[in-house]
Amino acid sequence: xxxxxxxxxxxxxxxxxxxxxxxxxxxxxxxxxxxxxxxxxxxxxxxxxxxxxxxxxxxxxxxxx
Length: 65
What we know:
63% of the residues lie in helices and 0% in strands. By secondary structure, it is mostly helical.
């Protein structure tokens, strides 16, 4: 099965550039997330981490009957 997929992909002109583009997008996203984590204050990250556990008046509870 893999050989048939490889055969069809090799027949497409210009397809060899797409893995490089995907890698560049992934790497840029990774660097952006790394920069965001390193520059965000620890108190804000702790607040974001506790959001799913927080109970306040803005939380809506749905009755699933």
